[in-house]
């Protein structure tokens, strides 16, 4: 497996500008400390709200942190999570990524860790899946439709199914945040490292115990320039009709 650089050509006058936006939407971790206007942050959350949500339940909430005192309180938690990641999963470059490129990525991660208190804005997407409503007739059809093997599988994977159900409702909005940030010239990157200390993050931010968090997205004006992303070639990831 190797990565390729995807270059974004200027869109045709009647073509979608979205494609060049996506092809230059790199994770940008080196942020200027300059504040992001409230109206701009509201544009990001509006983009998130436009994202699809499973069953159109729209049970998402977004915690937006811009207060420097709160960010300083979160900075030690961020450092602990990043250090834990870099000592384990993040210790080695992914297959197909050269060590020099990975070293530059780690340097950016460490920079963000060391300057986290200066982050202009942090967005925490949250979701609380509503309690399901069943009746006897519906459960009968459910059991008949799945069959014994399907029922056993659902019983054994209920936790994963619940997590994916929630994630499918919130991550489309998260992707919209990233796209909107890029379109507005803002740097942003999606992280889930905070989940290693989620209870402490939730306590610091007053997030209810029965509400799950799905990401921590630092947002700000980039120090560097946007550029083409490096991704696996399409031909290497497509399985047509069957695996």
UniProtKB/TrEMBL annotation:
Residues 26-221 form the Nitroreductase domain. SUPFAM superfamilies: FMN-dependent nitroreductase-like. InterPro entries: Nitroreductase, Nitroreductase-like, Nitroreductase/BluB. One of its GO terms (molecular function) is oxidoreductase activity. PANTHER family: NAD(P)H NITROREDUCTASE RV3131-RELATED (PTHR23026:SF123), NADPH NITROREDUCTASE (PTHR23026). This is Nitroreductase family protein. It comes from Streptomyces sp. gb1(2016).
